[in-house]
Structures are given as structure tokens and as C-alpha cells.
Write a structure and sequence with these properties.
Strand order of the largest sheet: 1-5-6-4-3-2
Strand content: 15-25%
Low-confidence stretches: 1-10, 269-274
Structural class: alpha+beta
Radius of gyration: 20 Å
Number of helices: 8
Number of strands: 11
Helix content: 25-40%
Number of domains: 2
Largest sheet: 6 strands, mixed
Distance between the termini: 45 Å
Length: about 270
């Protein structure tokens, strides 16, 4: 198998977080096209920046994509997951609230399109490599793929998480399935750990590390609550039909995670008490 030159590069990955991710993206100047997508997202669009000439508008569907757009609950889930991932410094595609002033009832997110990124065919965490187009690329943060799995469960996932690679950095994508619900199984985290203890114990040190990292961010439920309160558009009204808010559910999930860690601390060498 051919090894690309990237495998010989020792540098550590650095994810370039936006300097400003609090200001919503105004999609009014963009040409927005709607397209269907399999899975849970019921509406997906692409925002393309079009030049001023008539010829530009004739070719608007060929204009480069700047943002992928999602609306409703999918948009809320994408944005909340992004904010938590950034707090944990876990590389994730950049997600902004989206607005267009004539439509004050819009609940949408603009997801920055990464044209230089690729979907790896295979991710080998043990060797920190990914396979793409029959070439093996070195990705120093390959373990973040496992960390995103934990974070998806923390955010109430109902689906399998995905990742892409840009340069030599693996980053998470597509968090629309994260419904921000409370634990729906008794001993939610214990069952998760028991599964990997039996099926893939090599994951456990990484799993335990990211669980600890999450646990030490007690502010995450408040961050979710603040994000919803300050979001543009009627986000809170959109969520009014739910029995509990995402922040309440995350608080319950956080408490369950703390409880699991407190029970498991003696089992893991080097574990710190919470």
C-alpha cells in the first residue's frame, strides 16, 4: 500500500476555529438551492455566492457552495453540538445560526462548506491513519473519531457519527441526529462502557479520558441554555412542545455521566476523582 508524504509529517493537527461564531450568517445575498437528503434531515440547502452579472445568475447552480443549510430541529441540534464540541476543543465543522431579515420566523443553521475536505474510506485509530483513494494518510488526531462517538451519546444521539479530514485534521460532521434528550436507558453510561469492555477494550482509555473532560465542564448545560436564549429566530417557540428543554436534558445526562465516573474511578488506573 502506498503511503502518502503526509505520514512523515510530525506536526500536530490544529483546527482553525472561527474568530467570530456568535454573529449569525445573513444568507440573503446567497442563491439557495434545496435538495433532498437521506437520513433524518428533512430539509437541506446549499448557499452559493453568485456574481453580479446575468451570466453569473445563469450559471448560479454551478457557483461554489459556501454554506450547507439546515432548518428547524436539525439546525438547533447542529449548532448546539458545535458549541459543545468547541468548548471541549474537539474539531467539528463550523456551524453558525443563519438569518435572512425578511423572514423573522426562520430557524436555521449555516454550516461552513469545506471543499478541500474528504470522506475517508477507513479510519484506523490504532495507527492514526485514514484510507482515501487507495492512499494512506497520517492523521494525528484520529482518536477524536472515538471522542465524537462519546459526545454524540452525551448529546442524545440516535445515529452513527461521521467524520471528514481536512489537511491532516479529522473533524466531526452531521450532528442533526443529536436530539439532546435525557438518558433513555437505566445505567446509560455503564451499558455503553460494558459494550466496549466486551467488544473493543482498546477504546476504553480514550473513552474514559473524554468522559472526564466532559465531566469537568460543568457549565455545558448552562452554555446550551444561553445558546438557545440568545439565538436568532423563534428557537424557544420551536422547542415549546417538548416536555423538557435541551438544557434540562443535558443536565440530566451530565449528572448520569458523573455518577458513572464516580462508580468507575477505582477500575481505571490514573483516574482522578470528581
Amino acid at each position: 500500500m502506498e503511503i502518502s508524504s503526509q505520514t512523515r509529517q510530525p506536526e500536530q493537527p490544529a483546527w482553525n476555529w472561527p474568530l467570530d461564531d456568535q454573529t449569525p450568517v445573513d444568507i440573503t445575498p446567497y442563491y439557495v438551492s434545496k435538495y433532498s437528503k437521506g437520513g433524518l434531515s428533512y430539509w437541506v440547502g446549499a448557499a452559493r455566492f453568485v456574481g453580479p452579472t446575468a451570466q453569473d445568475w445563469e450559471q448560479r447552480r454551478k457557483a461554489p457552495i459556501v454554506y450547507l443549510l439546515k432548518v428547524g430541529s436539525d439546525a438547533i441540534h447542529e449548532r448546539l453540538y458545535y458549541r459543545i464540541a468547541r468548548t471541549l476543543d474537539l474539531p467539528q465543522q463550523h456551524v453558525f445560526w443563519a438569518v435572512t431579515p425578511p423572514h423573522t420566523d426562520l430557524v436555521a443553521a449555516a454550516i461552513q462548506f469545506e471543499p478541500e475536505a474528504f470522506f475517508p474510506k477507513r479510519i484506523d485509530v490504532s495507527t492514526k491513519t485514514v484510507l482515501y483513494r487507495r492512499r494512506t494518510h497520517f492523521v494525528p488526531n484520529a482518536e477524536d473519531f472515538w471522542r465524537h462517538d462519546i459526545l454524540h451519546h452525551y448529546c442524545g444521539t440516535g445515529d452513527i457519527h461521521q467524520a471528514m479530514v481536512k489537511g491532516n485534521v479529522l473533524f466531526g460532521i452531521d450532528a442533526a441526529d443529536c436530539a439532546f434528550r435525557a438518558p433513555f436507558l437505566e445505567n446509560y453510561w455503564q451499558q455503553y462502557l460494558d459494550h466496549y469492555q466486551a467488544q473493543d477494550p482498546t477504546r476504553l482509555p480514550v473513552i474514559y479520558e473524554i468522559m472526564q473532560r466532559i465531566a469537568h465542564h460543568a457549565e455545558l448545560p448552562e452554555l446550551v441554555e444561553q445558546e438557545l436564549r440568545e439565538a436568532p429566530g423563534p428557537v424557544l417557540e420551536h422547542l415549546a412542545h417538548q416536555h423538557a428543554t435541551p438544557s434540562e436534558n443535558i443536565r440530566a445526562m451530565h449528572d448520569e455521566l458523573l455518577h458513572a465516573l464516580q462508580k468507575l474511578s477505582p477500575t481505571f488506573p490514573g483516574a482522578t476523582s470528581l
